Amino acid sequence: MADLRISFAGIKSPNPFWLASAPPTNSGYQVQRAFEAGWGGAVWKTLGEPIINTTSRFAALSFNGQRVAGFNNIELITDRPLEVNLKEIYETKKRFPNHAIIASLMVEPKQEKWHEIVKRVEDVGVDGLELNFGCPHGMAERGMGAASGQVPELVEKQTYWVKEVAKTPVIVKLTPNITDITITAEAAVQGGADAISMINTINSLMGVDLDTWNTIPHVAGKGAHGGYCGPAVKPIALNMVGECARNPLIDVPISGIGGISNWQDAVEFILMGATGVQVCTAAMHHGFSIVEDMLDGLNNYLDSKGIASIMDIVGKAVPKYSDWGDLDLNYKVVARINNDVCINCNKCHISCEDTSHQCIDMLKNENGEPYLKVREEDCVGCNLCAIVCPVEGAINMVELKQPLPKMTWNERQSNIARFKIDKVAK
Amino acid sequence: MDEYETLKWGEVMSDHLQYLEEKRKIDSYFEKGYQIVSIFENLSGTFVDFVTSNDSGEREIVQLQLLTAESRKYIASKLIIN
Amino acid sequence: MSTLTGGQISLNLIDNFKEIHPGLTKREAIEEANRCLYCYDAPCIKACPTSIEIPKFIKKIATGNLKGSAKTILEANPIGASCARVCPTEELCEGACVLNNETKPISIGHLQRYATDWAMQQREPLFEVGEKNGKKVAIIGSGPAGLSAARELSLLGYEVTIFEAQQEAGGLNRYGIVSFRLPTEVVQWEVEQVKQLNVDIKTNTVVGVDITTEELLNQFDRVVVAVGMGNVPHLGIEGETLKGVYDAIEFVKRTKMDELTDDLVGKRVTVIGAGNTAIDAATTAVRLGAANVKIVYRRTKNEMTAYQFEYDFAKQDGVEFRWLTTPTKIIGNEQNEVVGLECLKMELGEVGVDGRQKPIPVQQSEFVLETDVVIKAIGQSRHLLLIEGFGLEHSKGVVEVNPETYQTSKEKIYACGDVIFGNGQGEAMVVTAAQQGKEVAEAIHRSFVLQSEIV
User: Fold this and answer.
1) Which residues in chain C show pLDDT less than 50?
2) Residues 6+ apart with CB under 8 A from A15
3) Does the interface ipTM go beyond 0.85?
4) Distance from B80 to chain A by nearest Cα, in Å?
């Protein structure tokens, strides 16, 4: 049994799986059911001045029959008075003292507003605060959420105001709807954040109905952009976590969010620098019970690797994440087709022929049977054929040892720079 | 039959053969004792000026235009090796 | 047809003749369509005699473009709805699917049925008649080959008339294939599609009786002989005229023409032969309520010509097989009713010219199978009268054609379908007949283009 407990910026949790601030954490009833199911923590549905929601709020992306590949919502923060939420937080914490309850907060960017809500929330015994600077729709139109999260000065200032009164750790939740998330992450750190979490949802329009031409979802024939999440956003989130994790100026723990659906996804985020993860869409798709395999799978994974504690793998892949200019140009892989495994669907051929480097030939052997072969000298090692190949092991990307030494783009440029200067001098 | 046809067609498209030709030229200049004096890069590729001096001290300059990505990599790798 | 649902016989006989497979649900179709890899240079297309662009029509199902899907199928195969049901898919497209050893092949037949079923429900014409070119073609026979040729010729602008001896058009598909495999409505729809292209189908019209061959040749620029095959020949044994002896073709045909009768309920039935027609007759007998159905065959399972799925289907229906058994006499009672079938045991001898081991009688092995009904299914006879009426060269009733053009020994007469099948020539599949019909149409069109007769 591996030790799955985490300590996230001082917040203790029995495991790294938290429910993200979202519909699943709307009430005490739900959060208590989640804790019973095994979730380690919950970030309560964002508290603030109660809002009014529309009906018809969610929509999802199906891909080739696979439902909920992506998910979109136009729901806002809590629509219940603060007192009701605080009472339920208090009761839940009393029942589950060892589980982490984080209060997500959103108020207007005014010092007194932040001071007021922080004090009232901390009075009921939350383990930490998460500042919602990310909600991309609705609240943003009122100058909150992503609207303030996109302005580094506002991120820093609001974090600072919270830190003036907060007694528990402060997590700043960042919006991905920004060119470079490390800028706002740095601003949060400057403001005194104890941790950051990312990503909030991405601006999105799920679709347009082909018959009515209404947006999907629509409210009485009109739509507005929503926030996108679910499995499809995982690579975007993972990159943002990695970029922050490898940035030396962002020296606070990261809570990873975005498309995490199972223990494998969680391990990836943790290896890329997250100390814990938050989940929403997967739970909305399948219910709270999915956490059982998350815990079991993670535990078995750690045991199989001989790792005693989940905390031991935090950030272990971060040194492997770098800039393009630091990649070795003389490293070479090529595709190799295992004809014993290949089923001759020819997908590799056509993808290479039409859209890559035309190096997979459709040939016939002496018995007239078809087979595929890579002309390795023309193969650029792009991986496309292996990606489209439907059969595991039919195409392997193999490394070809090069006679040339390692050389990155940056090294190349600095090496030829002196000769360039000569030319210019002439 | 098929193999022959395809290979022939592949040769026409092959960046690889172009690279081998450019690499051969680079290697031959180095073998003949030429040295790089300047490297210039623009939209048309990398231009490498090689120079050699004979016994009488006359300098001879040849310019090589490298088109393929592989040889533009190769020339820089040679700078690291040399 | 990987799904077998035989073996559940209802007392209400009509239920037994409803199509066995209910067809894919929308969800099943989309899930299955999404499983297709969309191979490049796909082997399923090559394995289809009509070269349907299978990955293309499947992709169209996945994107909800059912009209495009049905059109892709029917462009290549005018009787694609029938073929979706009767093709031996595991020997053709599905047998070639690259997923065979990986997981399971795509259910191409079922998907084809899904798309063509959609087209049947829409009642919207999918094809338009070509611009008239002033040429007239007569087609004799409205089975798979005839309908296919008619459709193609009509698209090319020919004025086409089909002469059909039976009461209704459709040929083998209409009368010869059991309705629980191919419902009559499907065939009627396919006939309707051809009629909508202004093809005139003259039913109840026997060439050589109602119209002479000379009249035909005078009135039309080209003639296509697509008459298929005839009834089951005589066994040449005693007792063939007894009450209770049936010709398998007629036996199946009766269930597709008249109301089902209960005169087989509780009876013992013996079918002679082990081809697909024999299986059809045997399973039909089961579905008519027969208490016991046996198939006797003088060779073994290895030599039978029935498809594996047909055999499996019969087994599921509870049909018994008596291998290495040859009938020598049908025994009757005083009322001239069948009471038994005298048989002889056989053993396999040397390999014959067709590559199959020859059955040899075992001396003194006679025995009697008690039975109330005997159904003969030992192959089909040829329409010699018509073939010779046109003066076509043939070999044992198999019309000889130029394999490239399907031209017979007479320049303006073409032949396709089962009428040219046999003696090692061609395949007896419905889908092959459909393809030949297409090719005949192309060949006829080429013959005019070569002669510059069409402006």
Assistant:
1) 1-5
2) A4, A5, A6, A38, A39, A40, A295, A298, A310
3) yes
4) 7
